[in-house]
Description:
The complex is a heterodimer of chains A (74) and B (252). With 74 residues, chain A is mainly α.
Amino acid sequence: MSSLQTFLAMGGYAAYVWPAYAVFFAVLITDSVAPRLRRRRVLRELRARLARQSARRDRAQEARDPAHPTSSSP
Amino acid sequence: MARWIPLWLHKLGSPPTFYRFAGALRPWMLALALLFGLIGLYGGLVLAPPDYQQGDAYRIIFIHVPSAWMSMFIYAVMGVAAFIALVWRIKLAEVVAMESAPIGAAFTFITLVTGSLWGKPMWGTWWTWDARLTSELVLLFLYLGVIGLYHAFEDRRQGARAAAFLAIIGIINVPIVHFSVNWWNTLHQGSTVNLFGPSKIAWDMLWPLLSMTLATKFYYAASLFRRVRTDLLALEGGKDWVRKIAESEART
């Protein structure tokens, strides 16, 4: 048996040792990916809200003074 | 004590300052976690000799014990932060407490599953209602209770206060988990590594264990910083400093 095979066999306990390590990494990877996705969503929602707010401001400005609409509207 | 220390702490408690501070530290914490993790794994899985009784099955110790320590350490951090949040109404303490809960729950879950995978070949059972195992399971339920209570309220800050209260009450369980192996006759073995006095473990096995312990500590810091930063953005959504971040990250 090669040394790699010996290592992977874990003295006959491979069925317990490797799943334990797999769970350890799977849980921690999930724990670090979840906040990354959440951060992206929070920022997206925030930008959408800001865009709505500035659009509302522009409309209000236009209603008051139709001749000079603000330049900030896209 | 130097006068700038309280001032600095006070500043650090403000969301924009902490956001920048955590952002600067986070990559270093993650790098240290990976470094100590790789060293610990190499030492534990390759260099350390097999145990004379347990053969190679004991190698689960290198993730089981650091995770178990983290499950209690994070609970203590969460309890202290929850106390500060309730007494002084500091928003940052609230966020630290609430964002510690999922990380603590993750480590508690790892502890229970790896312990089960270790128990089967050594004790002949996946689970037994022994004091150590039961109190660790209660710890998981406490974490889940804190998370659930936090999300059960429409108003986030109200939810955080209720959850902080539960977190403080639950802290009673931490010494129970720790001393359960001394107070009761358990199937789970007593502590192998002692902070005070000699440890009952060979150096070849001890140093990878300590390296993994450091790795999990740094991982917690990195994960907490990322979670707290995201939460601060969500909580302070209407403020100027958050608006600037949202706009600058849209351009990149």
